[in-house]
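Here is the promised in-class demo. Please do not try to memorize the tokens; focus on the logic of going from shape to residues.
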């Protein structure tokens, strides 16, 4: 009994969900997610190769870091488990931009102020649209304790 309680307590520190879950390599799919070199990646390419007469099939994975866009590659036996990141997408209304941070509000009215305006073209477009006085809805992708704005759109009137 004490063990079960202890585990439950540990889970609650992780806000009810672990950062990753295991999946057999052969079950991964293109456009799915996988952790490569400790980074949450979207699988953009995968191929299986046989390694000889008695060898096991190996899976070659190519993934793009969902936050940085950096490309990672990995090779794993098809029977091995790989970590798959839990990825969450949420939409927020943009209330304000201050010092490169966005002030956001989600559907239940709670606010969030710890996400930076994205760098590069996306961020420039977002700031320009906001400066024009448009009501914007931003999509925040979160995974493995990181968050980023990946897209935005004008709020429906």
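The designed amino acids, position by position:
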């Amino acid at each position: 009994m004490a063990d079960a309680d202890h585990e439950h307590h540990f889970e609650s520190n992780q806000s009810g969900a672990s950062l990753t879950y295991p999946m057999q390599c052969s079950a991964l799919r293109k456009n799915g997610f996988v952790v490569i070199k400790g980074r949450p990646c979207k699988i953009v390419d995968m191929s299986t190769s046989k390694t000889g007469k008695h060898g096991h099939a190996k899976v070659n994975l190519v993934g793009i870091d969902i936050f940085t866009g950096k490309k990672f590659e990995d090779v794993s036996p098809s029977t091995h488990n790989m970590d798959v990141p839990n990825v969450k997408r949420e939409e927020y209304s943009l209330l304000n931009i201050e010092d490169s941070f966005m002030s956001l509000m989600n559907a239940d009215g709670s606010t969030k102020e710890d996400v930076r305006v994205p760098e590069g073209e996306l961020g420039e477009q977002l700031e320009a649209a906001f400066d024009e006085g448009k009501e914007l809805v931003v999509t925040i992708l979160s995974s493995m304790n990181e968050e980023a704005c990946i897209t935005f759109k004008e709020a429906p009137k």
